[in-house]
């Protein structure tokens, strides 16, 4: 008597792996975007402070 052994696929690991990989990729890209934005905040705050200071100085001058 001869038996044939063939594997029985229990699940499709490639599809599950792609979902996890896609979620991880989305998360990491979002974190990098947030980190880039946060790194620009000091420059934006400095520029805003300069603009406010200039406006304050201009407001003290008499109209020409």
Can you describe this structure?
This protein is mostly helical. The chain has one helix and no strands. The chain is rod-shaped and about 110 Å long. It starts with 12 loop residues before the first helix and ends with a helix.
Question: What is the element layout, followed by pairings?
Answer:
Elements: H1 13-60
Key terms:
1 helix; mainly alpha; 64 residues
**Weakly predicted, low-confidence segments:** none
Number of helices: 1
The total of beta strands comes to 0
Shape: rod-shaped
Q: N-to-C terminal Cα separation, in Å?
A: 109 Å
**Strand content range:** under 5%
Structural class: mainly alpha
Percent helix range: over 70%
Major sheet size, sense and barrel closure: none
Mean pLDDT: 86
Order of H and E elements: H
Please state the CA-atom Rg, rounded to the nearest Å: 30 Å
Question: Can you summarize this structure?
Answer:
By secondary structure, this protein is mainly alpha-helical.
């Amino acid at each position: 008597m001869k038996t044939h052994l063939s594997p029985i696929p229990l699940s499709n690991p490639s599809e599950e792996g792609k979902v996890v990989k896609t979620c991880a990729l989305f998360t990491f890209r979002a974190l990098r975007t947030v980190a880039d934005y946060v790194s620009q905040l000091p420059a934006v705050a400095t520029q805003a402070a300069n603009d406010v200071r200039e406006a304050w100085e201009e407001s003290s001058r008499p109209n020409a």
